Amino acid sequence: MRIRYYSRREARTIAESASKDVGYIYDRPIEPVVEVDVDGKQFLVLCKGGIVLVGTRDGRHVPAITDSDAVARMRHFILVDRGAVRHVVNGAHVMRPGIREYSEFGSGDILVVRELDYKRPIALGVAVVESSELPTMEKGLVVKNLHHLRDKAWELLNSGDLKNIIEKLR
Asked: Fewer CB within 10 Å: C terminus or N terminus of the chain?
């Protein structure tokens, strides 16, 4: 495990770029960020306020799905039916047939994938197509899965080790 502290300027830059990605502005104070690297998986923690961002392969940061405040404030969403939930939670991308409702979004926007019945978040992903194309689509890829329930990042965030580290950093 590796821990790296960022300066205030670096912290502000990271928080601003993440805010642009997910479509909301952090209303908590931006303090120096700590990067925790566990087995090649990157987590960014804002010490005061406990915001945790998960690093993705393409260099973007998305809020951890366990941060219910951040996920609840995301503008863009897709609701998937029961048949798609199991596949999305296992890491599959979201395909058009499983989508039942959605907000307006553009290609490249980060959005939250929720299950239809209880509206609980099950994944965060990046849109591959615009929402205006969905009514005419019958099949095809709509959202690339970046972070989902039961992935490696979720397991690490729910493990006692990382929780203890985050608590000590606050």
From this structure: N
